[in-house]
Amino acid sequence: MLAIGAPSMDHGLWTELLRRHVLSLRDGQATQVDYAGMRADHKLLQQYLGQTSAVDRAEFDWWSSDEQLSFLINAYNAWTVELVLQGGPGIQSIKDLGSVFQSPWKKRLIPLLGDTRSLDDIEQGMIRRSGRYLDPRIHFALNCASVGCPALRTEAYQADRLNAQLVNRRAILTSKGV
């Protein structure tokens, strides 16, 4: 049994990968992901994804709302990168990973909090429709690996800085007319 205030997950590996392989463009308005570099560091990404998958529902439920939300945003973004990497070096778009019958965001391949989920499950079910995280700035934090999506940050979201990170992300994008 966990004590109240059980520590949240350390997102250091994800920050390390983002700093190595995400290039900020136009003052943070856009970013470019070096997928070849991510592929070269795939073991680190898989280690981080393993850490997200190891978190159980009871542990997650003990965390503060900011700890939960930063965890879900980081998991979504990291698993999005993983999905692109699974498509191989020749894909032109994440959309190439889907089919006429199923978008790539609906593929159930993510072991998270005791269930196998899709990116859409995390974004729509766990974050947006849960009623738990009623913050429109979340839209600016989730990167779906597509041109029209918000830029991927060069650092992981952290519970102790989440408000400032979301304010900064939204300010950068809205000041540029995104």
Question: Which features characterize this protein?
Answer:
mainly alpha, single chain, 7 helices, two-stranded antiparallel ribbon, globular, 46% helix
Characterise this structure.
- The chain is mostly helical and 178 residues long.
- The chain has one domain.
- The chain is 46% helix and 8% strand.
- It is built from 7 helices and 4 strands; from the N terminus they run αββααααββαα.
- The protein has helices at residues 12-21, 35-40, 42-54, 57-62, 65-86, 119-128, 162-175, and strands at residues 22-25, 30-33, 110-112, 115-117.
- The strands form 2 sheets. Strands 1-2 form a two-stranded antiparallel sheet. The chain has a two-stranded antiparallel ribbon with strand order 3-4.
- Helix 3 crosses helix 5 (65-86) and helix 5 packs antiparallel against helix 6 (119-128).
- The radius of gyration is 16 Å and the shape is globular.
- The mean pLDDT is 86.
Describe what is shown at a glance.
With 178 residues, the protein is mainly alpha-helical. 46% of the residues lie in helices and 8% in strands.
